[in-house]
Amino acid sequence: MAEAVSYSAALIAKIETGDRRPSADLARRCDAVLGGGGRFVRIQRRISRETVVPYFREWAGIEQEATALRGYEPLYVPGLLQTEGYARAVLSGPGLLPFEEVERQVAIRLDRQEILTRDRPPTLTLVIDESALRRPVGGPEVQREQLRHLVKVGEGTPRVRLHVVPFAVGAYAGLDGSFVIATPPVGEDMVYVETQFGGHVVDRPADVRRAIDVWESIRGEALPHQRSIELIAEITEAGPWT
After folding, report:
1. pTM higher than 0.85, yes or no?
2. How far, in Å, CA of 150 to CA of 235, rounded?
3. pLDDT of 83-99, one tens digit each?
4. Of the residues 7, 179, 197, 205, which has the fewest C-beta atoms closer than 10 A?
5. How many CB atoms lie within 10 A of CB 51?
């Protein structure tokens, strides 16, 4: 089986014994090799939703099905573009989670990123505040690795667009907090908002329209995609820590 799906035998063994969760890519390969007709993909999605924190489960499903995602983040690099080291630093930094829970949530976060490499990925447009790029989460090397990853994705992934709101903007609509807008294949847009105490999905039309207006206002303050990539590259080399 490992040879047929081009994964290591050790990993397949861990998945068979329940020590590791299958990724979306592995599920697709299993469907192809075994003629599952999508069964393995459906099982993998269900497992993924069950293992995430309860308040995120609904959004995890929405995110997987979305044709477009528009997000804003003033404090951190958004989860869909976090490196393993950065994600681990974000989750372990406060010291509130045990090691096993940190590792579990890091794995879940990295699994979510597979939507960007599937056959039909969503259009992902992210606006990030410059402060998120200059905060050395996990230390200078972890932050530099993360910024290099942003540049790589921004330059090499056509369906990902990055925009940075520079410090010079001052006060603007985004300072009230992060959120993500998802466009599903069928139906109306939905919004996910997360706070210190959990997150929730917003689907009330008036609230969704308000979120879209705020997001457009934020993007209007941000730099164009190419200039944003250039700024990220400049911060990567210089950084606030030299």
Report:
1. no
2. 12
3. 999 999 999 988 888 98
4. 197
5. 15
